[in-house]
Amino acid sequence: MEHDKHKEMLKQVMTGMPKDETLAELSELFSVFGDSTRIKILWALSEREMSVCCIAELLKMTQSAISHQLKNLRHAKLISSRREGKTVYYFLADDHVRSIIDQGMEHISE
Amino acid sequence: MEHDKHKEMLKQVMTGMPKDETLAELSELFSVFGDSTRIKILWALSEREMSVCCIAELLKMTQSAISHQLKNLRHAKLISSRREGKTVYYFLADDHVRSIIDQGMEHISE
DNA sequence: TTATCATATGAACAATCGTTCATATGAGGT
DNA sequence: ACCTCATATGAACGATTGTTCATATGATAA
Fold first, then answer.
1. How many residue pairs from chains A and B have C-beta atoms closer than 8 A?
2. B26 in Cβ contact with A105 (< 8 Å)
3. Does A28 touch chain B (CB under 8 A)?
4. What's residue B1's pLDDT?
5. Do A23 and B39 touch (CB under 8 A)?
6. The predicted structure's pLDDT at residue A106
7. In degrees rounded to 5, what are phi and psi of residue A51?
8. pLDDT (tens digit, 0 to 9) for every residue of chain A, 110 residues total?
9. 3-state SS string over chain B?
10. Residue A3 CB partners (closer than 8 Å, separation 6+)
11. Plot region of B87 (φ>0 → left; ψ -120 to 50 → alpha; else → beta)
12. Core vs surface per residue B88-100: b (16+ CB within 10 A) or e
């Protein structure tokens, strides 16, 4: 029957799909990339590690705004930090970050 | 001087950075992936093309909610559609989509 | 200690977002 | 014409988000 084949098909797609929790985690990851301030920060850090005020100066934004966003990025484990005296240097946690950005770039430029 | 080297460094990072418009476009792309409903839809469509009501049934969500999200995905050029009688079938616009998702998946599973 | 510089953080605000509900459009079928 | 099924859409709602402002913490120097 037609209806049975339909249900069969839905079931098949369902079983291939990762569990809700995983997909939620995935969308959370992408939403971190979904803000231009954070993208700029990530890009800057992919060039070299930087202090908070340096990033703020580079992006012409408030130190507070940057600090808040660094918190988000740190929470998503995309960046790490290192303290040297008064200043804190931030850097990319791994190079998945850059490859995700590059993949997105590739999609845009077509 | 120390201060000149700092400005030099900032300038160098700036020149390497894509222009604001591009980064805004990039973050908009990622924010489309930044919602679990949309991720689920994209995943489903990466398995096979599907009608609106089929997606709604699969995700146990309202037809309206799905339709609104399909609009977002279509606007981001991640999906296309094909009409067959009364029903409209949606499918992935290209396979960048799947590779972006896979890249994200790779980051999560570590 | 006190002063200063670098960074972090909490509250408040406007703006954006995803869903729901009601309704509109559009394409058959009778 | 009418009815029905599939899809689209506008308004409204609560929820989340990014920035600002004010203030707190933390580290160094005097």
1. 131
2. yes
3. yes
4. 45
5. yes
6. 93
7. -80, 165
8. 456 677 888 889 889 999 999 999 999 999 999 999 999 999 999 999 999 999 999 999 999 999 999 999 999 999 999 999 999 999 999 989 999 999 999 999 98
9. CHHHHHHHHHHHHHHHCCCHHHHHHHHHHHHHHCCHHHHHHHHHHHHCCEEHHHHHHHHCCCHHHHHHHHHHHHHCCCEEEEEECCEEEEEECCCHHHHHHHHHHHHHCC
10. none
11. beta
12. ebbebbeebbeeb
Chain B residues lying within 8 Å of A99, measured CB to CB: 103
Contact residues on chain A for B9, CB-CB shorter than 8 A: 48
- Helix/strand/coil for B8: helix
Query: A11 touching B, CB under 8 A?
Result: no
Helix (H, G, I), strand (E, B) or coil at A87: strand
Return d(Cα A36, Cα B25) in angstroms, integer: 8
Going by pLDDT thresholds of 50, 70 and 90, the confidence category of residue B99 is: very high
CA torsion, points B65, B71, B72, B78, in degrees to nearest 10? 120
For chain B, the residue count is 110
Neighbours of B15 (CB within 10 A): 7
Query: A8 near A67, Cβ under 8 Å?
Result: no
Can you give the pLDDT at residue A7?
81
Count of residues in chain A: 110
**Closest protein CA to C1' of nucleotide D9, residue:** B68
* Domains recognised in chain B with CATH numbers: 1-32 (no CATH), 35-109 (1.10.10.10)
Q: B37 beta carbon < 7 A from strand C?
A: yes
